[in-house]
């Protein structure tokens, strides 16, 4: 029995490792477009360093063949065969798609200029590092996690940084108000200019043009406006796609011979009642275990609480669950912050900064679906004097903690 995995990022390497750990004895082939051996992507924005996902000896020890510089151009599902750009054909018994995501393009005038950068690959990171130097005027278009991580690193290298976000606040799609404001204050205190509610309309040489506002002068631009799934292969092969490849909890597509996982997929998420596309390493690792169990005929694994991390300046940001539209309980002490979200009477999310204990406790409460009354008592026990207050969103419930 042979398994071919398209993609050598976290998801692709993890599913190969999990297959061997689950006792899979057939051949495993990993296909990667890049010439670089598999590496971690999160450090590219946080530190700029290249960190191998596994030592070279790992692949040899576990009989995992890694083929680099191999771009798949077509999936022939009826013949169970892949066609590569080189003209080669590769048969498979089972196929796993881990093609990831690419930076979302703004499609604006000037976006193709050499001074306009993006960050997804090691080649992108190397090009960015060549530009970052003391005094460089860098504009980061996008106030999401990736943009803020690069902004913090560039500021630490002596760059003059401006972050431009189209939404009314930072992290508009992935974080609550309290966490977004906490991070804005920290970035501003470091000397980073944060501009929100600003729509970019052009990227001509030497500046970023904004709708209804003065242009921002700069030497380089990093576009960090989100990511889109690389689902073209799957869609062309007739697999179900909707903002990603649609899979079930075990990573199954509509074809019994094809699984998918990682940033390219939309999947059911425990406790949230809908299919979501989660771009995180923990999500990819959870899916890798589920796919390996399915291919090896093992029982379905229980769902895990989704979580995510980000490093900015000296801040360790950790979140679990999916925030928004709920009552919010906060704890704050200097740089530390913990924000608990409650929805339908259940603890649904926790957002923390430099607060490892609250993150671990919040993740447990989410997994155990703790109700508000129980949560209030546990929160009272854990809270330190002077650090507990209640903040309510416009859609919150009315329970209070005194």
TrEMBL record:
Record domain Reductase C-terminal: where: 307-374
Keyword annotations: FAD, Flavoprotein, Oxidoreductase
Metal-binding listed as a keyword: no
Listed cofactors: FAD
SUPFAM superfamilies, per the entry: FAD/NAD(P)-binding domain, FAD/NAD-linked reductases, dimerisation (C-terminal) domain
Ranges for domain FAD/NAD(P)-binding: 1-288
InterPro entries: FAD-oxidoreductase/Apoptosis, FAD/NAD-bd_sf, FAD/NAD-binding_dom, FAD/NAD-linked_Rdtase_dimer_sf, Reductase_C
Protein name from the UniProt record: NAD(P)/FAD-dependent oxidoreductase
